[in-house]
Amino acid sequence: MSNKFIVVEGSEGVGKSYQIKIIERYLIDNKIDYILTREPGGTNFGESIRDIILNDDNNTEELTDSLLFYASRYENYKKIILPALDAGKTVVCDRYHYSTLVYQGIVGNNSSVKAIHEIFDAIYSKMIDHIIYLYTTPKESFKRISKRSVTDKFESRGLSYLEDLSNAYELVFNGMKNITKIDTSEDKNITKDNLIKSLDKIFKKK
Ligand code: TMP
Fold first, then answer.
1. Using CA atoms, how far apart are residues 167 and 169, in angstroms rounded to an integer?
2. N or C, which terminus of the chain has less Cβ within 10 Å?
3. From CA 111, how far away is CA 198, in angstroms rounded?
4. Do residues 22 and 199 make contact, with C-beta atoms less than 8 angstroms apart?
5. Beta-sheet strand order (sheet of 90-94)
6. pLDDT tens digit sequence for 38-51
7. Residue 23, exposed/middle/buried by CB under 10 A (0-12, 13-18, 19+)?
């Protein structure tokens, strides 16, 4: 079984953290050597950047955030992702460059960010084996987020922002190869079964 680079993407309140735990359980149960990394984050540098970007008090511009996301990403890519893939490990990355295109480029309507995506897409997408795209309706996302006691600056932007994110993700992933779309609107166990079936396909167990 060859090692894979799997990216997990999706809007807010789609249950990404929970589903990533299911992915980890699957990898452990199947004795697949893996690392889990995230964006922004992954390295100590990236985690520091995460704190800066997600702090609304900094009141940063769309392009400023994007450059920071990209700085965090390049460190994650060079220092964590590539070495792990070279060592034969499977890599699961919680968000990747599609998040910047969706949040800052399309929803933020920033043409410089879209241009940066065009430059870096060839580098970053080259290594991806599979994208797991988690989605639900914006209304369901909103309902889930509303129950949280703490939200970060992107989670707290309301229903119409969630609708924009959802439309942008559909636009970006529509027709793309190597994508598994998982609807997380249903009961957690149904979603889990669908996710496990997809993982079986990715790892060619069935
Ligand atoms: P998380 O909550 O999924 O860990 O992601 C952190 C937040 O950062 C989330 O609200 C999405 C946002 N984000 C962007 O806006 N652009 C990006 O490029 C990335 C990686 C995350």
1. 6
2. C
3. 35
4. no
5. 34-38, 90-94, 5-10, 130-135, 179-183
6. 999 999 999 999 99
7. buried
Angle at 18 between CA 74 and CA 133, to 5 degrees: 55
**pLDDT at residue 62 in the model:** 94
Ligand 1 proximity of 40 Cβ (cutoff 6 Å): yes
Give the number of domains in the chain: 1
Supply the DSSP symbol for 79. Answer: I
Tell me the one-letter amino acid at 129. D
Mutation to probe ligand 1, out of 68, 103, 110, 144 (largest number of atoms < 8 A from CB): 103
117 lines ligand 1 (CB under 6 A): no
In a 3-state reduction of DSSP, which class is residue 180? Answer: strand
Query: How far does CA 160 lie from the centroid of its chain?
Result: 20
Of 1-5, 87-91, 110-114, 132-136, the range with the lowest mean pLDDT is 1-5
- pLDDT confidence band for 123 (50 / 70 / 90): very high
Structural domain span for residue 100: 5-202
CATH number at residue 187: 3.40.50.300
CB 53 within 8 A of CB 69: yes
Residue-wise burial string across 27-39, b where 16 or more C-beta atoms lie within 10 A, e elsewhere: beeeeeebbbbbb
Please list, in sequence order, all residues whose beta carbon lies within 8 angstroms of the beta carbon of residue 58, skipping any fewer than 6 positions away: 52
Mean pLDDT of the chain: 95
